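Exercise 3.2. Students should predict the tertiary structure of the chain below and write it as structure tokens, then compare their answer with the key that follows.

Predict this chain's 3D structure.
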Amino acid sequence: MSESLVYITCKTSAEADSIGEVLVGRRLAACVNIIDGMRSMYWWDNKVERGQEFVLIAKTRTSLVDELTEAVKAMHGYEVPCVVVMPITGGNSDFLSWIREETKEP
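Answer key:
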């Protein structure tokens, strides 16, 4: 089995909470962390944009990443939401087992 962290940015705290609740409720993620106060600068519509965003980090099985990504895209307000996967290559084996136990079988 392998596990991953999925990095997602959201426009509002409410959106991050809503997406996080669905991901955990559907057992697509064992846990999500929501970090507020991130300042972002990005290129969009031929100009540099700036704004505040909220980071959502989901801990999940790698085999659930595609389903999790589709769930995020269906709920997200951005035209092109940031959903980026970072494979976990090591760490506390008890914690990694917990991720597998708390997420659904793919």
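Discussion points: The chain is about 30% helix and 40% strand. The first helix runs from residue 13 to 25.
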